[in-house]
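ping. complex inputs:
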Amino acid sequence: MYKGVAELALLCVVQESPEYGLRILELLRDEAGLEIAEGTLYPLLYRLEKQGSIKSEWRILDDASHPRKYYAVTAQGKAELKAYVDEWQTMNATFNRFLNRGKK
Amino acid sequence: MSANLQQEPIKQWLNKLARALESLPGDDSREILAEAKEHINERVGKGISPMEVLTGFGSAEAYAQGFVDEYLLIRARSSRKTVPMLRTVIRFAGRSVVAGFGLICVTISGFFALWCLVCIAVKIFRPDLVGLWLDLPLSAQHRYVHSQRDFIPLSFGHDHIVFGFQNPPPQFPEHLGMWIYPCLVGIAFLSHFALRASLLAAVKRIQLPAGFKPSLKVLPRA
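pong. complex structure:
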């Protein structure tokens, strides 16, 4: 059931602006309600980067005293995200119809 | 707890991680290490205990395995070379049904290819020990009478056809002569083709566990 959810959630987080690992973790926890561990997140980011869905860059921003690795979505990743979202919404709508059958 | 005591488990964990990542390219392992170190330091800086932070990563070996698995799969898929694909299939055979089945197919194909090469080598030095022996003409009636007399012209039983290496050689006539060489080369080629096809199919279909599944916990919404 969760196959593809990981990629969908991660691509969604980094589509607006580049984010670093800890911030991605917090966004997934606070906004998506997904409790994932560091040991799951970083290998997944590595996979997405290797397959060209995201790219990374070390940056030092004003609020940080040390460099952080920021991840951003690529054009390929944007296309994949759109496909994931369409698939997710189709599945969601179909399953909702199934759950609500006979209630009307 | 003093700062040094706090840093010690982190140092140990990072050292273990560095060792576990040795099979990755240098740039990859350095980045993974730097990113883990940065993450740990930032969380510890926010007042979270090192042990709690390290718990999120799991053991250094298990954490590294996620990267190494990804790297091996990506390399095997992109290179399409036999040795990296074989290494990857062997590594995943205990954890993936697809890889396990692929390894069985690879073993069978590899055995046939090796058997052909051994037969060719033996044929060069002992031509009498390798060949195709038939004890009956292909058009002959079946030798054995089962429930009723049948007319099956050919059976692959040991008594009827012997192909390849046989020591001592059978007493009945050998039919292929020097044509055994192209036959063996052809079988070796087909076996190699089957081996490569098995590897490619297995490597393409191996799935790593869904990223979120082991630790998914939907939090109650505020």
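The first helix of chain A runs from residue 5 to 16.
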